[in-house]
Amino acid sequence: MRRIILGLMMLPMMAQGQTLEQCQQAAERNFPLIQQYGLIEKTTELTVANIQKGWLPQVSASAQATLQSGVTAWPDEMKTMLNTMGVDVKGLRKDQYRVGIDIQQTVFDGGIIRTQKAIAREQGKVQAAQNEVNMYNVRKRVNEMYFGLLLIDEQIKLNADLQELLTTNEKKLTSMVKNGTAAESDYQNVKAERLNVMQQAINLESQRQALLKMLSAFCGIEMSQPEKPMAVNVGIGNNRPELKVIDAQLQLADAQEKAFDATLMPKLGLFAQGYYGYPGYNMFEDMMTHRWSLNGMIGARLTWNIGALYTRKNDKAKFQLQRSMVEISRDVFLFNNNIEQIQQNENIERYRKLMSDDEEIIRLRSFVRKAAESKLAHGIIDVNDLVKEINNENQARVQQTMHEIEMLKEMYDLKYTLNIE
């Protein structure tokens, strides 16, 4: 049902063509890593739930059988005296047995469980942020294929225009050959050039189909026609998900330090122990009889492990070093990101300057090509000069298209670099 609904939602987009934003959204929904968000959240919930169970009574069962080299015994004088009184003193047996249960209940743990839950949550945030980085990289891959497809589409249009222009000149030469004002070789030259351009069209169409299939598979939708995006002016700021990873790592370091402080606190707990076996707690009675008995005790236990105080200073220094390393990774990322911004801004400005002359170059090339057609008709130049001028005009149009598409790509790459809407 979900696939059907998603397919119905995609129908208008498939009919009208796809924008870059629609392709990016579709690719993110289609990318397998998106399923990992739910897995990370569920894993974090289970980990926190398991840690919370530390407040439940901890029960352990045990059974043991031992054979001792010596046991507690009556002094010989007392044993002799008891025997004279008719009391049979057997003494403890060297083989002893017990089956028991030990219950421990934490009352105060110094905050260990609370800080462990905080660590589990922060670790989940780090994993989710890292997964967001991996998902964000999908946009760059979509950009590469999308603008590549746009460029090929423009080249196919220009190729069709070039074929039409060559066909027109081919028809003129056919008439000129019939009238004896042009040689048959001139006609064949232009025809060969047209066939060469047709072969280029076949290659371009093959490249387009391959790229279209790749983009369709990547986005999980049937791509039809990409729409040329508008030029954008990217604002100031930086919302890259890598920065969220760094923030999450710093918060994790804070949670780990609090957990370390909690280990220095005293712990208070209740306990209950019970076992069935021999000997029991009543040692004198067990020396008289060798019967198994039920035995138990309850109590409270206060423990305080001060061993961590010996390394506290060094451990604190280690936490600070970890934070410093994370902060350095932030500085490195921002440094590289800033270099990338500078390069992309310079490229955008370069393409703007190139585009300012493209229209004039095309106008001039078109004028020269038309003049060459007139000169050929009057026998002033040969057909090779005409073909050269036709190709020069086409190359100027191709350059204009490339400058426009490349500038748009640089703009959207800059948008990706900063993650600013």
Word description of this protein:
The chain has one domain (2-30, 109-266, 304-418): Outer membrane efflux proteins (OEP) (Up-down Bundle), CATH 1.20.1600. Helix content is 68%, strand content 11%. The longest helix has 68 residues, at 112-179. With 421 residues, the protein is α+β, with helices and mostly antiparallel strands. Helix 2 packs across helix 5, helix 5 packs antiparallel against helix 7 (241-262) and helix 7 (241-262) runs antiparallel to helix 9. The protein has 10 helices and 4 strands, in the order αααβαβαααβαβαα. It is rod-shaped and about 155 Å long. Mean pLDDT is 89; it is low at 1-16.
CATH architecture: Up-down Bundle
Identify the overall geometry.
rod-shaped
Query: Average pLDDT value?
Result: 89
Q: How does the major sheet shape up?
A: 4 strands, antiparallel
TL;DR of this structure?
With 421 residues, the protein is α+β, with helices and mostly antiparallel strands. Helices cover 68% and strands 11% of the residues.
Task: Give descriptors for this structure.
68% helix, 421 residues, 10 helices, alpha+beta, Outer membrane efflux proteins (OEP), 4 strands
Layout of helices and strands:
Blueprint: H1 2-16, H2 20-30, H3 35-52, E1 58-67, H4 76-84, E2 95-108, H5 112-179, H6 184-219, H7 241-262, E3 267-278, H8 283-288, E4 293-303, H9 312-377, H10 383-418
Antiparallel strand pairs: 1-2, 2-3, 3-4
Helix pairs in contact: 2-5, 3-5, 5-6, 5-7, 5-10, 7-9, 9-10
